[in-house]
Amino acid sequence: MVRDGMTIAVGGFGLCGIPTDLIRVVRDSGAKDLTIVSNNLGIDGKGLGLLLENNQISRVLASYVGENKLFMRQYIDGSLDVEFVPQGTLAERLRAGGAGIPAFYTRTGVGTLVAEGKPTAEFDGETYVQERGIVADIALVHAHTADEDGNLRYRLTARNFNPQVAMCGRTTFAEAEHIVPLGALAPDDVHTPGVFVHHVTPSTTSTDIEQRTVRPRPAQLIEEVVR
């Protein structure tokens, strides 16, 4: 289903909760001139960084890009068109697209470059800028658990943008660490209802850690104090 020129929304934050297997499928498709909607583009050589290395992305809508050197090089040399979107606005644009809301107004970005060229309106004496909902051709998400009907549950902070991304895709693909029979997920444990999900596949790739932070063991601390 991946074709040149598509808009693809991708869940995750850094390397947390990213659909690694599905990103590799997009890379292997060889599709070019893609517009990617995601909080950020992973890091060099991992996550959406794989599509950057393969020169498959021409436009990006993102809110944070600080961990990917190749992204910054392509942006600075003009080979990558980037629309910076405030993080909360990005989440709401994705949710709005999935909810059938074509546009909404927010105070975030008023009076800045974010608002340039966008309609504004006054409500209760305050100026608001209009932001458009995002509808992607394809959405890619990562879940901890999925049932056979596409109901999804995420794990802790790996949920991040995944629920909003799952909503906004005309066709949504989910990879899941565990796939269980229909009925194994309690209704109040479902984060994304299966009505938003069209295809589910097992996740086969272990999670990468973007920045490993560890504390010294107590014995090491005592030894350092003695020294």
In short:
With 227 residues, the chain is of the alpha/beta class. The protein has helices spanning 20-29, 49-53, 69-76, 87-99, 162-168, 218-226, and strands spanning 7-10, 34-37, 57-62, 81-84, 103-106, 120-123, 126-132, 136-147, 152-153, 169-180, 199-202.
Could you explain how this protein is built, in words?
The chain is of the alpha/beta class and 227 residues long. It contains six helices and eleven strands. The strands form two sheets. Strands 1, 2, 3, 4, 8, 9, 10 and 11 form an eight-stranded mixed sheet that branches. Strands 5-7-6 form a three-stranded antiparallel sheet. α3 links the parallel β3 (57-62) and β4 (81-84). α4 (87-99) packs parallel to α5 (162-168). The longest helix is centred in the middle third of the chain and has 13 residues, at 87-99. The radius of gyration is 20 Å and the shape is globular.
Q: What structural class do you assign from the helix and strand content?
A: alpha/beta
Low-confidence sequence ranges: none
Give the strand tally: 11
Largest sheet descriptor: 8 strands, mixed
| N/C terminus separation | 62 Å
User: What is the overall pLDDT average?
Assistant: 92
Helix content: 10-25%
Helices, by number, come to 6
SSE sequence, one letter per element: EHEHEHEHEEEEEHEEH
Beta fraction of the residues?
25-35%
Q: What is the molecular shape?
A: globular
Return Rg in Å. 20 Å
Brief descriptors of the model:
227 residues, alpha/beta, 11 strands, three-stranded antiparallel sheet, eight-stranded mixed sheet
